[in-house]
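Bit of a strange request maybe. I'm writing a small parser for structure token strings and I need a real example to test against, not something I typed by hand. Could someone generate the tokens for this chain?
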Amino acid sequence: MSPNPMNPTNPMDPMASNGPIGPGLGEGLPGNPAGGRPRRAAGPPQYVLTEDTPVYVISVAAELSGLHPQTLRQYDRLGLVCPDRAAGRGRRYSARDIQQLREVQRLSQDEGINLAGIKRIIELENQVSALQSRITELVDSLEGAASALQQREAAVHASYRRDLVPYQPPTPQSSALVVWRPKR
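Reply from user aminoacidic:
Good idea to test on real output. This should exercise your parser:
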């Protein structure tokens, strides 16, 4: 039985769960306290799957997105969804790619937007995302500079000699106007 790609409870759906993909090795096995992960020998770090990890071949991606594999190839040629390539040049789709395929399908079928319009929408969304990242980067940089300035200012204030009294200009006693005339 093939899984329904539109069913959010589909266990093969990469977008259905927010947690890790599948249970860890040895979880719930006898001799494993509290169902935790088994102890492993020290070695290279484990491979972590993210939504950008290219893991799905074209047939699985087509099934998950509800599209025909030839449609996925066409979208790749047009630049709508560009999957990574395996060593043998085979396409490898990530969960983000599959979500984007679903969005392309929705825009095309439900909204009636042509593929050129969809490509432009995707480009603009990518541009907005890049600009938002840049804004976040600049805000962080600005906050860091403000913090450094406050630290320098505090260091200067801490270096003041406490026996000095700040200068205050004298207050005028009278507001009379004095005219000076040189001698001839």
